[in-house]
Specification:
about 425 residues, Rossmann fold, six-stranded mixed beta sheet, four-stranded parallel beta sheet, 16 helices, about 50% helix
Length: about 425
């Protein structure tokens, strides 16, 4: 399922639909993002077409008349593939393929293609393959159109359908196997997470290409791949850093994007759990992007899906060096109190970000001492799970624990002591 990098750029036509409810400016922005996605996948957008129509055509997406008109444009300009900004049904794909006689892919298919190209670790490859198979399953009919082309219509229907059913069974079996594999990966991650409870954990999250990996590299002195492309990195990377005399775990995560396929988000659940399990989220926003507030909302909604909306969050507005209108900086500082404006690339205002992180750690974490009886082993184990144990001193029949925990876990420990008596 995982594809290798392609060298020759394909010529693409991008198509989008502006329905009665849609805002023209937003449709244009979505199409520009689709162009960036196409570029990341290795295609040149030769044409960008927006069709205005009351609603989506169930048979041809943009309507049969418009599709026939574009088919001529495709032929005359030697276009290799047509990419739709919305997800297409199997019927729409089949009809458009017959008309254009070219490859037809939609936004989800394009994102999956990029993920297949970018996946490096075993986990990312497993996640991508699962998402690809789940995407492919309802679209299998078009994969077998070669049967009717090769042999003609009569006498081929049975074998064709039998082959499709065989293929569906194989794909379903493979999906079950991959889901089991990811379940094991997730339980391994949870085991790793338990061993990390001793540390304050920070996750860098944000819209794709907001500069997460650049900031991660700056804070950790690591060498994580960072590029000015959508989805430059897929894998969550975690490093330990010494932060004001204490160790902190910091993670870089996969970027979010609007219209991200639901099955893709589900496949990457184990990676995104890094965000869910963190104490502090650094939400990176590309301030130089004209639709940065729209991107901000997409990320907030995705974090909400994963139950991370109540985490301590610092909004980090990045790429300040690319801002010409400085009133924009004042605007975000007023609208988003507690946010920090930086340039990860140029290292601008990083000290303010570090101060903001230090303040949260100071405000949210407490150091306490607790004396337990030597026989209270279960309670001692629970303290180790919920807090960072700084020191343990044994007396004759008691144990003195000194620990650091966030305020929520500190309350849990106190409740456990009360219920233990």
């Amino acid at each position: 399922m995982i594809q290798t990098a392609r060298k020759i750029k394909e010529r693409a036509m991008l198509i989008a639909l502006q329905t009665r409810q849609a805002n023209r400016e937003l449709v244009e922005e979505h199409l520009s993002e689709l162009e960036e996605l196409a570029d990341t996948a290795g295609a040149d957008a030769i044409f960008k077409i927006i069709q205005s129509k009351a609603s989506i055509d169930p048979a041809f997406y943009i309507g049969k008349g418009k599709a026939e008109e574009l088919a001529q444009l495709v032929e005359l300009n030697e276009i290799d593939l047509v990419i739709s900004d919305d997800d297409l049904t199997p019927v729409q794909v089949r009809n458009l393929e017959r008309l254009f006689n070219r490859k037809i892919i939609d936004r989800s298919g394009l994102i999956l293609d990029i993920f297949a190209l970018r996946a490096k670790t075993k986990e990312a490859k497993t996640q991508v393959e699962l998402a690809q198979l789940e995407y492919m399953l309802p679209r299998l009919t078009r994969a077998w159109t070669h049967l009717s082309k090769q042999y003609g219509g009569i006498g081929t229907k049975g074998p064709g359908e039998t082959q499709i059913e065989t293929d569906r069974r194989m794909i379903r079996t493979r999906i079950s196997h991959l889901k089991e594999k990811l379940k094991n990966i997730e339980s391994q991650r949870e085991t790793q997470s338990k061993g990390r409870k001793d540390f304050v954990r920070i996750s860098i999250a944000g819209y794709t290409n907001a500069g997460k990996s650049t900031l991660f590299n700056l804070l950790t002195k690591a060498d994580v791949f960072a590029e000015d492309k959508l989805f430059a990195t897929l894998d969550s990377t975690t490093r330990t850093i010494n932060f004001n005399k204490e160790k902190i775990l910091i993670s870089d995560t996969v970027g979010f994007i609007r219209k991200l396929p639901a099955h893709l988000v589900a496949s990457f659940k184990s990676t995104l759990n890094e965000v869910r399990d963190s104490d502090i989220i650094l939400h990176m926003i590309d301030l130089s992007h004209p639709y940065y507030e729209d991107h901000l909302k997409v990320v907030e909604e995705t974090l909400k899906e994963f139950g991370s909306e109540h985490k301590k969050e610092i909004k980090v507005f990045n790429k300040v060096d690319a801002i010409e209108d400085k009133s924009k900086i004042e605007y975000v500082r007023n609208k988003f109190p507690g946010s920090v404006v930086i340039s990860a690339q140029k290292g601008i205002n990083i000290s303010a970000l570090i101060k903001a992180i230090e303040k949260i750690i100071k405000d949210e974490f407490v150091e306490e001492e607790l004396t337990l009886g030597i026989e209270q082993t279960k309670l001692a184990s629970q303290i180790h799970d919920l807090a960072e144990v700084i020191s343990v001193k044994y007396n004759h029949d008691t144990v003195l624990f000194k620990f650091r925990a966030n305020k929520e876990n500190s309350k849990k420990i106190k409740k456990l002591i009360v219920s233990d008596h």
